[in-house]
Amino acid sequence: MARPVGAGKICDTFDCHVRGLMVNVLSEKVAMKKLNLLIVFVLPGLFGLQAQAEPLHPQLSTKHMFIFGAYRQTFDGNIYANRDNLPETKLNIDGLGIDNTETSFMAEYRYRLGNKWMFTFGAYKFDTEGKIEAGRDFNFDGVEFFAGARLDTNVSVDTYIVEALYSVYKSDRAQVLVGGGLHMFDFSVSIKTKVVVGDEELTDSESSDDLLAPLPNLRLQGFYALSPRWALAATIGWLSASYNDYSGSFTYLHARTTYRFTERFGGSIGYQFVDVELDHDKANGEAGVDIQFEGPTVSISYSF
Asked: Where do the domains of the chain lie?
């Protein structure tokens, strides 16, 4: 029986099956493209998401970092501890015979909270001493010293830092953070005069002064990755402020280059400059320092 012309055709041939399969594949491709467009463009807009490239350097995403270092510091400036009943005297570091180049040490911990916040806790220690014959009369914290006396001087500066930084710019290579913190300076100065009795050297008179002072500080920190291992970093800090009986200013600059030996271990070399000016008004006088530290730095780090 002949099939009428124009009647519904049945695709029982191989060619019809191939055509149907191609139509299905094309339909699936169109659907996948629409789904991809939805994921890439629509969903981030709905949920406020922003696609970011993977950080080039591990430090841009490290949550915990421990840093230990040494600083070869040149130390210069003036110290004083005056009493109301004696003439004001400022003592220069060189005039006390102090070795003005010393190696100091530091330890620091950094914690990254999400993509925006970083908190730093640090401790820095500096200690130096010197021996010299006094070239003039002077007084320190109520004790008078006379020209020709044999002086034995010790200066210790311990610094403790707590700071919070907020990221204002971040990419796969770089980050800029701004914030502030508190620097606690613990200055300790001891001056002794020595006399020789027979074969023994004895202390004739002694004066010491301790100055524990809090100084707030503003910070700007930058980091730029040259490669997955090499990077450049810099930190700038400054503030001038008064607090109760304390007044002073603090300026800080530390530039360095860092290198990652492994995913967790790294190191850095750099140069640091610190200028501290601090005055403390006491009930019976005043004490203070105006000192500068500067020199090369080296450190190792462990992060995870």
From this structure: 12-51, 58-303
